[in-house]
Amino acid sequence: MGSVNSVTNLGRSGVFDWLIQRVTAYVLALYTIFLLGFMVTTDVNYDTWSTLFSQDWFRIFSLLALLSLGAHAWVGLWTVTTDYMKSMAPRFLVQALCGLTMFVYAVWGIQILWGL
Amino acid sequence: MLVSLYRYNPETDNAPYMQDVEVEIPAGKDLMVLDVLNLVKEKDPTMAYRRSCREGVCGSDGMNMNGKNGLACITPVSQVVRKNKLVLRPLPGLPVIRDLVVDMSLFYKQYEKVSPYLINDKPAPAIERLQSPEDREKLDGLYECILCACCSTACPSFWWNPDKFIGPAGLLQAYRFLADSRDTAQAERLASLDDPFSVFRCRGIMNCVSVCPKGLNPTKAIGHIRNLLLQRAT
After folding, report:
1. ipTM value of the model?
2. Which of A43, A63, B151, B178 has the fewest CB atoms lying closer than 10 Å?
3. B88 contacts B53 by C-beta, under 8 angstroms
4. Which residue in A has a C-alpha nearest to residue B195's C-alpha?
5. pTM across the whole model
6. Residue of B195, B198, B222, B225 to mutate when probing chain A, most A C-beta within 10 A
7. What is the DSSP string of A10-78?
8. Do B142 and B176 form a contact (C-beta atoms < 8 A)?
9. pLDDT digits (tens, 9 = 90+) for B72-131
10. Which chain B residues have a beta carbon less than 8 Å from that of A14?
C-alpha cells in the first residue's frame, strides 16, 4: 500500500480537497442565488446597492464568497494543471501564478468591501 | 464486411497505421467480434491479439470496437458495427506492444497498490474464517471483476495520470477488501488512499460503468470509498 505524495494541493489530503470543493460550491451557489434574488426583487440603483454593501453581514457574506471562490478555484485549477501539464517547471509556475492571483483578489476584495 | 484494424509492429513499422480487410461473414449469422478476428488471422497470420477462454471469463481480449471498449469474444458484431464497418483498436491509453496487444504493466501496478488480498492479523481458525450471509452479500458486484482493463482504459483520469490514479478496476478491488468483514486492515487501507490522486481523480463520469463487460459499477464503489474516507476524517 502506498499513497501518492503531493505538497502543492490545498489541503494535503484528498478528502480535505474534496470536502472544500463541495462546501465552497454551496457557498458560491447561495451567494449567486441571493444576488440574483436581490436583483429581481429590488430596483437596483446606487442607493439600494450601497445600502446592501454597507451592512456588515453582507460584507462578511461577500468575503466568505470571495474566499470560497479562491479555494474552489485553487482545488480546480490545481487538478487541471496536474492533469495537463506534465513538465514540472511550467506547472509550478502556473500554480504559483494562480496562487498569487487568488491572494491579490482576497486582499483587494477586503479592501474594497470595507472601504465602501 | 469491412474490418479496419490497428496495425503496429515496432520491429518493422515506423508508426502505427490502419489496415482495411474485407471479411466474408457467413450469411444469416451474427458472429462475435473475436470470430471476425479469427477470420482475419486465417487470411493474415501476422495479426496479433490476445485471446484465451473465448467466453468472457478470462478477460484477455479487451479491445476498442468502433470506439467502445469491451471483450471481443462476447460482443456480437451486430451490436457495434456501423455502416457495415468494424473498427478495431487496442485499449486506449496503454503502450502498444504489437497490433491489438497492449502493455498492461501500469494497470497491474495500480492493482497491486490496493493490496488485493485478505489481510487478517488474528490467529487462523482451525477450518475457515466464517462470514454471515449478510456480510458475504456486501461483496456481490465487487468480486466478479476479471481485470480485463476495459474500464480503466476508458477513463480519462487514468489516461492523464496512469501512474498516480488507481483507476476504476483497482478501486473496485480496493473496496472489495474494505467491505470484507474478515479483513482487519481497513485503517491502513484507507490511510493509503487518502491523497489527492489515488481515489479523488475520479470525476464520476461513469465511462467505467458504461463499458464494463461484467456489468459492474466501479463509480459506486469509489463513492463508498469516499464515504469511508469522509467518515474517518470528520
Report:
1. 0.82
2. A43
3. no
4. A14
5. 0.90
6. B195
7. SSSSHHHHHHHHHHHHHHHHHHHHHHHHHHHHS--SHHHHHHHHHSHHHHHHHHHHHHHHHHHHHHHHH
8. yes
9. 999 999 999 999 999 999 999 999 999 999 999 999 999 999 999 999 999 999 999 999
10. 193-200, 229
